Amino acid sequence: MKVRLTIAEYVIHMGSSGPYVFSRNLTDSSRGVLAAESVRHSRVVHSSETPNSVSSEELLEKEETGGILRLSSMVTSAAMAYASSALTSSMGTKQVQLSSSFRSKLPISFRSSCRHVAPTRRLHLRVSSSLQSMVSDMGRKAPKGLFPPEPENYSGPKLKVAIIGCGLAGMSTAVELLEQGHEVDIYESRSFIGGKVGSYVDRGGNHIEMGLHVFFGCYNNLFRLLTKVGADDNLLVKEHTHTFVNKGGDIGELDFRFLIGAPFHGLKAFATTNQLGLYDKIRNALALSTSPVVRALVDPEGAMEDIRDLDKVSFSDWFIGHGGNRSSIQRMWDPIAYALGFIDCDNISARCMLTIFAFFATKTEASLLRMLNGSPDLRLSGPISQYIKDKGGRIHTRWGCREVLYDHTEDGTPFVSGFVMSKATEKKIVKADAYVAALDIPGIKKLLPQQWRKYDLFDNIYKLVGVPVVTVQLRYNGWVTEMQDVEKSRQLTKAVGLDNLLYSADADFSCFADLALTSPLDYYKPGEGSLMQLVLTPGDPYMPLPNNVIAEKVDEQVKALFPSARGLEMTWSSVVKIGQSLYREAPGMDPYRPDQKTPVPNFFLAGSYTKQDYIDSMEGATLSGRQASARICEAGASLTEFNKMLPAMDPKVAEAALDFEYSTVK
Ligand SMILES: Cc1cc2nc3c(=O)[nH]c(=O)nc-3n(C[C@H](O)[C@H](O)[C@H](O)COP(=O)(O)OP(=O)(O)OC[C@H]3O[C@@H](n4cnc5c(N)ncnc54)[C@H](O)[C@@H]3O)c2cc1C
């Protein structure tokens, strides 16, 4: 059977051994072959030769001479599906109809993609909320560690628990403990709660955020918390596509919108993305199809173990070692790695990246992004703190912990005897049955008693390092991301532009959004334009620069990405620098993350950096809080017995502990 079909710049040749696809316009770098051993002899061949003159035999000969890249037999049928879709998508923007014989060779799920429609280049404003739908069902075929079952009702003695740190981890711990009937006090050194996802209102009425926050559709622990506290309607669902903005306003998309769900929507997204060229997509297909992500489809627990084992290698090493290539890293993976961990693919562990991709591949909605409808203080931490108060919990802001007081029992077991706290000119020792440090990396390092470093669990924490990050907000007198209609971008009556998280490989900020569009309730201001929030990664070079210089540099880069914004004026700016934010998820660091239960029986840890199966994130912080609460409840009865044996604090020790100069704990 010989069928030849000419479509755009491609020619499909149905040889006796299967379909071949030739590309007429070729550069050396795009020379390659797409194939899958599962459907033997199916290939896409880039060749500068006139296709008509190349026979199957000549093709095979080329393979032998190395003129064509041969794919390994590891390539699975998933790769074939991917390849087929990649092929159809690269046929240009026209709808194309392949011959029925060729279509019949494609996997069923991809036959429909032979009719390829160009991805939409404009995103539509869509305001829908609620967590009733479009959340990945983590209850089914999901690793248990990531989505623990509901805790059993606690029946042990009521504990008085003191928590330091009122970020998401501290608040999640408090909610769980209060629901189990315990008494909870949270102490926060800052004047506002929320930690890294906190925000406050400045004198001009602007909400200043610690950073840009997006919620993946697999954040079930956080969604569970938001539903409890009645804040589930505060999330706006964005279009199911990941948008890359390239220099000059060129938009690339990783578009998950598809009739069929996981894993096909992911295959379709990667196959059709216009952020990568065909050759890069082929190399991506190779790497991803040989990753633990494929195992996750049938065996999520096993895949999680495989992913954990990949903590020792960087994502770049793993990706390139599995057939991926450098230009895919630069154009697509680096912005994503920066957004996830504030470091690039050469520095981030493969575990960190693959944890997310396993979700994307197996759960349809995992890659769907949500953003708050306004500022975190009003829409996230506010409702959680209200719930805590309604349940009888107490939150004490501006109360910083200066020291963890500790002693030993007669048999040498260490125990915490109190937290030394201060607020402006007040100071006190807080005593409790259980003590929780729900701090960030610099906070916990500063507070841990040095003598406790003889325990590996505590000593390992000092191997974790925080990554610097700088978040910039820029207000404009027009709409920065509106690139189609200059007139619209200049009016100030209606918010217009790209309503989603945006990535870029061409700027010092890897991810950003126009908050006036994405989170309008507190950021859209009548008579004003875009409020761009941009995350500078790596943040190191910007840390020493004055805020006005940073704002100007970022404004320049915004205008390089969006030429249509060149006439707009930046009318206001704010810069937030965090010297040590997320822990650096570098290769080999995961084993150093501490468990929530420690060698000190009445001292527990929470925080996104502590041991939990997710990455350092809002979801990880929430999960760590659930785990901390579970460990405390497990210890309930024995802890009460243990506490009964503890000697009373020597008044001289208490006096000495409070003998310090007043100063704010930062
Ligand atoms: C710029 C930026 C963007 C981000 N974007 C995202 C995102 O899009 N999606 C996502 O999921 N995650 C994101 N994250 C990560 C997420 O914000 C964190 O992982 C999470 O909020 C950490 O919560 P936590 O409670 O563990 O720690 P923190 O939020 O750091 O809370 C620790 C708290 O302890 C307090 N504290 C410290 N020392 C003391 C002391 N001695 N006494 C009393 N209190 C003390 C601190 O003030 C702080 O409030 C982002 C982070 C940043 C910085």
UniProtKB/TrEMBL annotation:
Predominant localisation class: plastid
Example of a GO biological process term: carotenoid biosynthetic process
Keywords: Carotenoid biosynthesis, Chloroplast, Chromoplast, Oxidoreductase, Plastid
Family: Belongs to the zeta carotene desaturase family.
Reaction catalysis annotation: 9,9'-di-cis-zeta-carotene + 2 a quinone = 7,7',9,9'-tetra-cis-lycopene + 2 a quinol
Protein name: Zeta-carotene desaturase
Stretches assigned to the Amine oxidase domain: 168-632
Enzyme Commission number(s): 1.3.5.6
NCBIfam families noted in UniProt: zeta_caro_desat
GO CC terms, sorted: chloroplast; chromoplast
A GO term for molecular function: 9,9'-di-cis-zeta-carotene desaturase activity
Recorded metabolic or biological pathway in which this protein acts: Carotenoid biosynthesis; lycopene biosynthesis
UniProt-annotated location(s): Plastid, Chloroplast; Plastid, Chromoplast
Function noted in UniProt: Catalyzes the conversion of zeta-carotene to lycopene via the intermediary of neurosporene.
Claim: Plastid is one of the keywords in the record: yes
Coiled coil: none
Keyword Hydrolase in annotation: no
Domain of life according to the entry: Eukaryota
InterPro entries for this protein: Amino_oxidase, FAD/NAD-bd_sf, Zeta_caro_desat, Zeta_carotene_desat/Oxidored
SUPFAM superfamilies from the UniProt entry: FAD/NAD(P)-binding domain
